Amino acid sequence: MYKFLFVIFLVIGFALAARAQNPELRNKETKRDSINLHRDSVTSKPFVPKIKHDEQKYHPDSLHSPKKAVIRSMIIPGWGQVYNHHWWKVPLIYTALGLLGDAYVFNEGYYQEFLALSKYREHGTSPAPGDKYYNDYILYQGQQDQTIYDANNSYRRDRDLSIMGFIGFWGIQMVDAYIDAKFQHSYTMDTDFSFRIDPAILNQQNMLAQGFGGPVIPGLKLTLSF
Prior knowledge:
The protein has about 230 residues and is mainly α. It folds into two domains: about 1-55 and about 190-225, no CATH class; about 65-185. The chain contains eight helices and two strands. It has helices spanning about 1-20, 25, 30-40, 65-75, 80-85, 90-125, 135-140, 145-185, and strands at about 195-200, 215-225. Helix 6 (about 90-125) runs antiparallel to helix 8 (about 145-185). The protein is elongated and about 105 Å long.
């Protein structure tokens, strides 16, 4: 960010210097000026320092296999993300799958409970003391039959949604692993932003040139790389 701000201020400074021209000197040509211009036209090539650019952050890796990433994520959730060096995604994946798994266990337990109570109501029977659902039968004895049936259907629906969500998210993390691996395999993700400063000769005559005794002044050339 500091580099970017430095470039902005430097460009503004050069722009202001270029606009600060003196009309009285712009078209005034003397014998001395002609000699200086002729002499400057045969000057040698200016020295250009070599400046190293930062390496690109990511390069294509032909050995990084998207197929391996998706197969590993299919076998063990998060394994493909580890293969892609995206470790931070693993806790998120297991948190989501854990919550969906917990929702399945919760709804499955109540579904089995109300399924048994629904069968007792349909057949007009009751569980014997000591039976697994005897206490639940006594607890909901005052409820209407339709209430028990509705509760059974509700927990079954939520259980099925939990299963679908679990399978769906498993597939999503497989797709995520494949896409990340594909980018690393085939594309260059370059976040490099740099600039280069080279010496240059400014032929525009302005007020700053008065101190150099001629219509040309030394300057700097900016080269931005994206």
